[in-house]
Amino acid sequence: MNFLGLCLLTLWLYLPGFLANTFAMMWGKWLPKTGYGPWPIDGGRTLSDGKRILGDGKTWNGLIGGSLTSGLLCMVLVASLGDVPDSSVALDENGIFAHPLQGSDGAWFAIGGEMLTAFILGSFLGFFCLVGDSTGSFVKRRRGLKREGDVSSKAPLLDTLPFAIMVFLAGQLFLGTSILADSELRLPMLALVLFTPVLHRSFNVFGYKIGWKDVPY
């Protein structure tokens, strides 16, 4: 498989993580309309610098809803792919649409059947994506960039790179023998990190145009 194919394969395998921000955006926008939330993760608290810890843009409804929706997406992907290939099948034999559960036998997230395993894996990826995104927000607040009420500050790299780096690191460090932790994916991961600002911006502009986001970034 050529390098572009490996990049597309990596994006496919980590899709539940990459879309977690979009899912969190939906939960952050829709749930409050039902009268529940939003519930800022930092509870409105500030640090000794007088600035919010994370700001209004990072909520429990977004974190939990986004993570669990990523789990549901992973279930859909697994259900659409059929049987899990044997772990001995080489990475380049899978094609771009490899099975996310390949190599997961005996892994910590392999609990119950395939659907539960897929849900845990997807939720794991979604959670770490959103932890990375929150890390970017933490740095933005320390730099004096606000996210309170209708005020939202733009910082292209901090809005994009932390979540991509975090989800890839989590996959490589914590997914053991899973195909997602394959060392051959590391260079494609680096390429995707560099491309993520463009990808993330596209999703956010789309979300803004259809009313899911208050700002296009």
Keywords:
two-stranded antiparallel ribbon, mainly alpha, about 220 residues, globular, about 55% helix
Description:
The chain is mainly α. The chain has one domain (3-209). It contains 7 helices and 2 strands; from the N terminus they run H-H-H-H-H-E-E-H-H. It has a two-stranded antiparallel sheet with strand order 1-2. A hairpin with a 2-residue loop joins strand 1 and strand 2. The longest helix is centred in the middle third of the chain and has 29 residues, at 114-142. It is globular, with a radius of gyration of 18 Å. The two termini are 34 Å apart. The mean pLDDT is 87.
Number of strands: 2
Shape: globular
Please provide the ordered H/E string of secondary-structure elements: HHHHHEEHH
Rg, alpha carbons: 18 Å
Helix content: 40-55%
Mean pLDDT: 87
Q: What is the count of helical runs?
A: 7
Tell me about the largest β-sheet: 2 strands, antiparallel
Sequence of strands across the biggest β-sheet: 1-2
| Secondary-structure class | mainly alpha
- Alpha-carbon distance between the termini? 34 Å
Oligomer: single chain
Low-confidence stretches: none
The percentage of residues in β strands lies in under 5%
In total, the number of domains comes to 1
Protein topology:
Blueprint: H1 3-13, H2 15-18, H3 20-30, H4 60-81, H5 114-142, E1 147-148, E2 151-152, H6 161-174, H7 186-209
Antiparallel strand pairs: 1-2
